[in-house]
Amino acid sequence: MPEMARRGGGGGGGGGGGDARNWDEEGYRKSILRERELHYRTVFRTAFAPSLNPNPETLIVASSDGSLASYSISACISSVTQLMHFNRKIDEKPVPDFLLVEPLSVIQGHKGPAYDLKFYHVGEEYLLLSCGDDGRIRGWKWTEELNSDLSMGMQGNDLKPLLDLVNPQHEGPWGALSPIPENNAIAVNEQEGSIYSAAGDACAYCWDVETRKRKMVFRGHSDYLHCITARKSSNQIITGSEDGTTRIWDCRSGSCTRIIYPEKNRKLKEHSWVSSVAIDSSESWLACGTGSGLSVWSLLSCECIFSSDSCAPVQDLLFQDNQVLTVGSEPVLTRFGIYGVVLSQIKCAPQSAFSVSLHPSGVVAVGGYGGLVDVISEFGSHLCTFCCQGMD
């Protein structure tokens, strides 16, 4: 129960204990809704902002309320340090080990959840790109977002996107238009001037950044796409789908050149989706996360190097040198060697994690259920855990 409900009034402005004359019904209702919204908010993606500083400075968070919010990592660490220093108790309950943190700035990026974000480097400028449930890909100049002083009450609406792309609607019987399919993930190839999106209509799309026009459609999956990554050295993209396959596509022709079945060698044959794909820096290895585990493949031979079953679905992954970091529907960050040996497992704050991101320094950010973000050092210690402040 909220604190002001325990006090018997809260916001009534007079403090008379249980005096109903001071009861603020609207304030109480808002507090209940806010507590519920905080509990169910989900972080779907985190990304470290580009910087010349070798240490991580700013973390960008895409959330289920459609917001894109930036947070100062040093401020979060400082707040957690103070909380630990003043480790006191309130109402005989221990102070929580995470804080509700105000963002540096916030953009209302999408109507509905924001699922992914990427930085696109063009010249000396960075675009902050995001995609979401509304079927849009939107982009803002990062310097403008970084230097803006956007109040939470303004909801970021005064910072207009430089880029605004909308998925096509498909025509059905009698000319009826289907709903705009959502974008679940995006990838970029600055050399080709392209943005790629993984959509809910089982297609991937290629967009030209300069003309803002759709260049190509990749058709072949039989169910909606969860994930996408760009293999820039070969001008290819790789997609993962609810249909249980990973496909490699030629971006020149739009054709599928290879189909990979991550579940092919599993003993249990039940259907499982491909939730996440990642390639290493040499673009020679491919990692596939599924509803039942992890597999790593050689992109030169398309042979499976190892596969590992998991009791919980893998929901995001990435390469760090010759290691693979995974998170999923349990509060654990797992580090695998390239041939499948589990090197470490670290408990993280979100009970279900949807995003793992890596800074060049080795610092990792894990985001997920409850609006929680866990920032973990290269040595495995928790630098800070915070709960994202969303839009009012």
Automatic annotation (TrEMBL):
GO-annotated biological processes: mRNA export from nucleus
Classification via Gene3D superfamilies: YVTN repeat-like/Quinoprotein amine dehydrogenase (2.130.10.10)
Gly residues composition-biased segments: 7-19
GO terms for cellular component: THO complex; transcription export complex
Pfam families: WD40
InterPro entries for the chain: THOC6, WD40/YVTN_repeat-like_dom_sf, WD40_repeat_dom_sf, WD40_rpt
Sorted UniProt keywords: WD repeat
Transmembrane segments: none
Family affiliation: Belongs to the WD repeat THOC6 family.
Record-linked PANTHER family: THO COMPLEX SUBUNIT 6 HOMOLOG
Record's protein name: THO complex subunit 6 isoform X1
Organism: Phoenix dactylifera
Gene that this polypeptide is encoded by: LOC103712961
